[in-house]
Known about the structure:
By secondary structure, the chain is of the alpha+beta class. It has a single domain, classed as P-loop containing nucleotide triphosphate hydrolases (Rossmann fold), CATH 3.40.50.300. It has helices at 14-35, 55-68, 82-87, and strands spanning 43-47, 74-78, 91-97, 100-106. The chain has a two-stranded parallel ribbon with strand order 1-2. It has a two-stranded antiparallel sheet with strand order 3-4. The radius of gyration is 16 Å and the shape is globular.
Amino acid sequence: TVTGREREVRTLSGGESFMAALSLALGMADQIQESSASIHLDMMFIDEGFGSLDDRSRDQAVRVLKEMAGGNRLIGIISHVTELKQEIDDQLVVTKRDDGSHVRWQLT
Length: 108
């Protein structure tokens, strides 16, 4: 912690909880790959959570995920946050309509 004091998980804000969960997931993925040469985690999906972050924290999380993506690794983000959508280059956009959901690629 910044203050040197431990905090109980239940005292974390929504944004702090999301960042802690994301950090844990990324760390676990690294540990799994390092402990077994036969396991390659080439894909990760993050479902929501970005709405609880302030702008600075969201930008930091996106920067880390962009650094991880590319090559043989795919990072999928499921979100309704408009600001986040503007930061993601290639998107699979799902639109709900009266006749069902429609899907299209939006590539840059």
